[in-house]
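ok so I'm stuck.
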Amino acid sequence: MSGYTGRMAAHMQNRTEGTRHPRLLGGDTARSARAESLVDLSNRVLDNRQTRTLDSRRKPAWIRAQVPGGDAYLSLRSRIEGLGLHTVCQEASCPNIGECWSRGTATIMVLGDTCTRSCGFCNVKTGRPPVTDLDEPRRVATMLSDAGLRHVVITSVDRDDLPDGGAAIWAETIERTKASCPDMTLEALVGDFKGNHEDLQLVIDAAPDILSHNVETVPRMHPAVRPQADYDRSIEVLRRIHDGGLTAKTSLMVGIGERDEEIMTTMRDIRKRARTDILTIGQYLQPTKNHLPIDRWVTPAAFDQWKDIGLDIGFRAVQSGPLVRSSYHAEEHARAVGTTREA
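replied:
not stuck anymore, here's the structure
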């Protein structure tokens, strides 16, 4: 056996049967938000079966994104589509797709385009994924081998339907990409693997230059925003990444119902408990009327303040701004912490 099949078989020999509890794949965000939540936003979550519409809220002047287009954008899109790959830029409706793709950078998404979780902020489709594409790691490495990039970000959907959460495919993708692109630094953005430490360790052992896991929001908001995740579990993922000797990175979004003081407390908690190196903070933008509504528009001055605080408390790099996303200007983060390779 080789590739995913062989790795999976070897990995699962060390796993105890029945350690995972079956859960519904996907789900109803409104229903999940009501179940034993510390905060209940169910009266603000729209129901597809009803005809309610959200009042339009005019975006402030500082929320402006580049319209996708141009030769570089079209060339990168052609390469991605030609190999049958997915990007989080497209699937999550990232506002920076025009700017990033025009610069020749994109965030590749592995393990398909269907997520088994139903986070209230995310535009990636939820459901039962199709048969896992075992050739995906090879195609990702092939595309990146001639992309001419100095740094790449690879992320994935959550695959709670797989026995290892997709860890073996993650490891193969990282290893193939590193072998095909020795002059390129690689950042992997992973889920929490349902808290299974052996699955996470498989990815840590593959040794990407930066390993990211997004906390996304403050502890109080987790039951509504990330109903199938857990704040403390995410902190543990980040701690293990740091303890494994890798550069750790995480991201927070604001404007979804948290308070300023909660953001600052969460920043300090992440740094103290997990020793995370890189932090990004950005404005939540509601992707459709069926997602959690925007609670407020955060001003650029507040983002600047959080950046200063983040650097003061020990983060080695902080990217904070209205349109910042986890992968936005990721090469700059890598350069700031010294992981980029010199030509």
